[in-house]
Amino acid sequence: MVPRLRSRPRRYWRFTSRSLAIFRFGVQRLLLKPLVWSLTRVEVRWDTASGTAPQTESGPAPQTESGPAPQTESSSAPQTESSSAPDTTSGAASRTVPATLTELTETPRSYIAVANHASHLDTPLVIGALPRKLTRHLAAGAAADYFFEVRWRKWLTCLIFNTFPVDRNGGRFHTGVSKKLLARGVPLLIFPEGGRSATGKIRPFKPGAAALAIACDVPCVPIAIVGSYEAMPRGKNWPVRGRPPVTVSIGAPMYAKDGESARDFTQRLSDEINRLHTAGRQQRATKPGIAREIA
Fold it and tell me: What is the CA radius of gyration of the chain?
């Protein structure tokens, strides 16, 4: 387990800054989420992988927040989570896996949100779908060779999405940043495919997120995003017209099993996200007006 750090170097102050968290609240929840939800038809699915029917929340209008003060957000987790069944698929031998994301919010530890990646819409979709309490200091991994090479792009993404650099071309210039953030209680959003899919299909996962979760003893929250590629594929700077449907399926938190390798944990995460992705597409296909768009 990564020990809690006693010092707070200035290099990392922005990730847990209260003032910046309030700024991000205004941008993410009051501007960006209403914009994305108005340009697409977003449905959020809470899935426990326990064989029970997943609970959903849908509708173009985002949930209202009580205010920008962080202290008022303790009850912001959706009520639809309280009756979810516990996860029975992780197979952890020596610990109890939180049954719902509500229990995860009560756990004094960080987590890693792991999602498939096919569009620039994915980050605001994940942030908007998760409860505010889970995303107050959420830091999104961003390609160091793209988002951190240009100064204006770097600071814009840092301010809005609290991004941290990820070396995806084999470099080691930013080694250890993610561990230090988790040690400070900062949850992470990582796209283990290493970049946006060019076809919309989920590509093989890299083991970095799983290895990080094992090293820091934190859970991974699997998230499948369905329809973001059709809504805004690579090469597009704005969503297509017609409010295309998008589904964000959020699974139960998963821990690595005792003695499990990063490769094996990565495969379990990949299988779960693919399962959520397939279930999301099937559910959309049964809804009037959406089946034709999916086909």
Answer: 18
pTM of the model: 0.77
Class of 13-49+84-294 per CATH?
alpha beta
Residue 34, helix vs strand vs coil: helix
DSSP 118-137: -STTHHHHHHHHS-HHHHSS
Question: Which residue is it, tokens 């990565």?
Answer: 266
- Contact indicator for 277, 202 with CB cutoff of 8 Å: yes
User: Phi/psi class of residue 51: alpha, beta or left (left: φ > 0; alpha: ψ in -120 to 50)?
Assistant: left
DSSP label at residue 105: H
∠ CA 232-236-240, rounded to 5° = 50
Domain spans in the chain, listed from the N-terminal domain onward:
13-49+84-294
Lowest mean pLDDT among 56-60, 65-69, 108-112, 168-172: 65-69
Question: Residues 181, 12: contact at Cβ < 8 Å?
Answer: yes
Given a contact cutoff of 8 angstroms between Cβ atoms, the answer to whether 47 and 98 are in contact is no
Contacts of 35 (CB under 8 A, 6+ apart): none
Question: pLDDT, tens digit, for every residue of 201-250?
Answer: 999 999 999 999 999 999 999 999 999 999 999 888 899 999 999 999 99
Contact predicate 37/128, CB 8 Å: yes
Report yes or no: 98 and 253 within 8 Å, Cβ to Cβ. yes
260, 199 Cβ separation under 8 angstroms: no
Map tokens 């989920």 to a residue. 202
Write the CA distances from 131 to 8, 136, 164, 253, integer angstroms. Answer: 27, 9, 21, 14
Environment class of 43 (CB within 10 Å of its CB; exposed 0-12, middle 13-18, buried 19+):
buried
The CA distances from residue 206 to 69, 238, 278, in Å, are: 37, 28, 20
